[in-house]
Amino acid sequence: MKRVLGWLGGEKGKRAGFSLLSIGNLLIALVTYLRFAEIAKIFGTTWQTDAISIAMVIPILLQQVISTAFGVAFMPIYSRVMLGKGDVAANRLISRIINWMSISGAILIGAVFLFGSSVVRIIGPGLQENAAVLANEVLKIFLPVIFLNSIEGILHNFLIYGKRYGLVSFVRVFQITVSYIVLLLGHKSLGIMVIPISGVAGAMVSFSISAVLSLRLRLRYMMVIDPRDRDFREMIRLAVPIIIGVITGYLSPVADKILASLLRASSVTAIDYAARIRNLIRIVLIQPIIILSTVSFAKIAAGNNIQKLKGEIASFIKYISYYTVPASGILVVLSVPMISVLFQRGNFGPEQSQRIGYALAFYSPWFAQIGIGLLIRRAFYSTKETLIPVVLGIWAVFANILLNIILIQPMGIAGLALATTLTSSAKTLFQMYFLRKKLGGINGSVFVPEYLKILTATIIMVGYLVLSGKLFPFDLHAALPGRIYNLLIRIIPGIVLYIAVTGLLGSTTFRIYVNVVKRKLFSGKELPPGVS
Description:
- The protein is built from 19 helices and no strands.
- It is mainly α and 532 residues long.
- The longest helix is centred in the middle third of the chain and has 38 residues, at 306-343.
C-alpha cells in the first residue's frame, strides 16, 4: 500500500496526470453509480427522496460558494506567489485561506441551523408537511460536510498544483467508497437517514486523509488570520465576483426543484436523479480535462504568454469535444434504455426509467458544449477576469428561469431540463465571443473546423442509432439480460461508426488519439513502420 501511495504521490506530467485523473474519475463514477443504484433500489422515488433532494440544495450551494469560488480564485494567485515569493509565502497564503474559510463556514453553518426550516419551505413550496420536516432534519445532518469539503477543496488545489493528481483521485475514490459501505451496512437500521449519514462519514474520512497527505507534502500550516496581506486581498477580490456567479448559477437547479415540487409527488426526485446522472457523466468525461486546464492556464497566464494560452485553449477544446459531442448524441437517443439497464430494479421500475430517462434526454445536448464553456471560464479566471463570466452567469439564470416557466406546462420536468440546456449553450457562445475579444482571438481556425468534423460524425452516428431503434425496439419490461443486449447492439456499432467517420473526415484529434494508443501498445518495443 505504501508503494502504491508513493507512486500516486509522485509529480506527473500532463499526459500521465490525465490518465490518473481519468482512471480515478472512472472509479469514482463506478462507486458513485453503485451507491446511487442502491439508493434507487431501496428507496425508489417517493416523497422521502423528494425531501432528501430538497435538503441537499443548501449544503451543496454553500460548499460551492466556499470551496469552488475560492478554489478557482486560488490557482492563479497561488501560481504567482509560488513563482515570485517561494514556499514560505505560499504556505502562509494557504493557511490564511483555510483559517478564514473555517470562520466563514462556521458562520454559515450557524445561519443554516437557525433558519433551515424556512429555507426548506422556500426551496420546496409544494412539499407536504411530513416531507418538509424530514428535509429539515436531513439538512442539519449534512451541515458538517460544508466545513469539511470546503477546506478539503483548498487542500486538493494544493495537491493538484504540485501535479499530485493520483493522490487527489485516490482520496476521492476512498471518500465515495466509505460512503457506499456505510449505506450498505446501515440502510436497514437507519432507513432514509442513512443517505446523509453515509455522506458525512465519507467526507470526514476524506478530509482527514487530505490533511495528512498535504502536511506530508511540504504544506506548513500557520495560525495567520490578518486579512491585510496583499495576495490574500487580491484573491478575495477575484473570489467575490466568482461567489456571486456561483450563487446565481446555482439558482437554476434550485428553480428546477422549486417548480418540480409543484408537480406530482416524486417529480423533485426525478429531475434530481436526471441531474445527478448528468453530473456523474460529467465527472468521467469532462472533469479530468478541466482540472488539467486550470493548472495549465494559470501557469501560462502567470508568465503572461498570451499566444501560448490561446494555443492551449484551442488544443483543450479539440480534445474534449472529440468525446463529449458523440456522448451527447448517444444520450439523446438512448437515455431511457440506459437508465433502465443501470437502475431498474427493486423499487425502481419501468415508469421511473421512462420519466428520468425522458428528462435526461433533454439534458443530453448540454454535453456537446459544457466542456468548452468550462474551459473558456477557466481561461477567463486565469487572466484574473471574473466580471464577464459572472455577468453572463447572472443573465443565464434569469433566462433559464424564464424558459422554465414557459416550458414546464407543456413538457413537465423535461421542460426544466431543456431550459438548462438552451441557456447553458447560449452562455458558452457568449463566453467564447468575449474571450476572443479580450485575447485578440482564441485560435478558432484551429478548433472550429475540427468541431464541425466531430459534429458531422456525431450526426451520422445518431442516424444509425435511430434506425437501429426501429429495427430493435427496446422493451422496458424485458428481463435485464435482454435489455443489456439490446443496448449493446446499438451503442457499440454506433461508437465504431463515429470513430471511423472522424478518421475518414481527416480529424486531427482522431490522429492524435490513435498515435497515443499506438505509443501505449508499442511502449518499450520497436515501432512498426509508419508509427510515430
